[in-house]
């Protein structure tokens, strides 16, 4: 199933996990540490009516806004702007149509970020998301597409029990992105 189809079929927990996972992998662009989104992940174990999401999201934004000045230098400014946009667009309510729009936007932005960091500007991200294909994509971009798909599949198949595995997928992706940011910084001087 393609990434686009998985997002269209995801329930509210899956959508929230997808958006948080995309944002989590991009935390190095925001100057955040590896634990910056851990509280937000924690809210996903409860039901959609769980009132913690909005408050934890507000606290997370404040923490990452304060860390923004510490963001890795030399990184493409467009990539950092996309990551900040993902955080800013997160809905205060973990339900409703705004959540699907946010998850879809995070997916597209995270792929674009990986494309920018890999210098693979010729890839058709829309087709990759729609068709679920990784052939012809750069390794960094293909891996991000697979990670996004894996997060949605894990939560769809296992519900709250799939969150731990989804977090592990995201943690691996964050390490890869951090290395890509560092490599880009060395290359750009």
Low-confidence stretches: 70-75
Count of helix runs: 10
Share of β-strand residues: under 5%
The run of helices and strands is HHHHHHHHHH
Gap between N and C termini, in Å?
A: 41 Å
Task: Tell me the number of structural domains.
Answer: 1
Estimate the mean pLDDT confidence.
89
Rg on CA atoms, Å: 15 Å
How many β-strands, per DSSP?
0
Fraction of residues in helix = over 70%
**Class of secondary structure makeup:** mainly alpha
User: Can you tell me the overall shape?
Assistant: globular
Q: How would a crystallographer describe the biggest sheet?
A: none
Describe the structure.
With 189 residues, the chain is mostly helical. The protein has one domain (3-188). Helices cover 71% and strands 0% of the residues. The chain is built from ten helices and no strands. The protein has helices spanning 3-9, 12-25, 27-30, 38-43, 52-67, 77-89, 97-118, 125-131, 139-158, 163-188. The longest helix is centred in the C-terminal third of the chain and has 26 residues, at 163-188. 42% of the residues are buried.
Secondary structure blueprint with pairings:
Layout: H1 3-9, H2 12-25, H3 27-30, H4 38-43, H5 52-67, H6 77-89, H7 97-118, H8 125-131, H9 139-158, H10 163-188
Helix pairs in contact: 2-7, 2-9, 2-10, 6-7, 7-9, 9-10
Q: What distinguishing features does this structure have?
A:
189 residues; mainly alpha; 10 helices; 71% helix; globular
Summarize the structure.
By secondary structure, the chain is mostly helical. It has helices at about 5-10, 10-25, 25-30, 40-45, 50-65, 75-90, 95-120, 125-130, 140-160, 165-189.
């Amino acid at each position: 199933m393609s990434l686009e189809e998985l997002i269209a079929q995801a329930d509210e927990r899956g959508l929230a996990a997808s958006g948080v996972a995309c944002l989590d992998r991009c935390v190095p662009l925001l100057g955040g540490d590896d634990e910056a989104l851990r509280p937000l992940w924690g809210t996903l174990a409860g039901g959609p009516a769980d009132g913690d999401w909005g408050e934890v999201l507000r606290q997370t934004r404040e923490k990452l806004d304060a860390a923004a000045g510490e963001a890795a230098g030399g990184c493409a400014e467009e990539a950092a702007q996309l990551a900040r946009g993902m955080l800013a667009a997160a809905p205060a309510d973990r339900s409703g149509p705004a959540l699907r729009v946010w998850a879809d936007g995070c997916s597209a932005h995270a792929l674009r970020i990986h494309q920018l960091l890999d210098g693979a500007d010729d890839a058709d991200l829309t087709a990759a998301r729609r068709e679920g294909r990784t052939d012809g994509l750069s390794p960094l971009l293909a891996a991000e597409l697979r990670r996004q798909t894996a997060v949605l599949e894990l939560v769809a198949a296992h519900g709250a029990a799939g969150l731990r595995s989804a977090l592990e997928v995201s943690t691996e992706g964050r390490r890869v992105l951090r290395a890509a940011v560092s490599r880009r910084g060395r290359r750009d001087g």
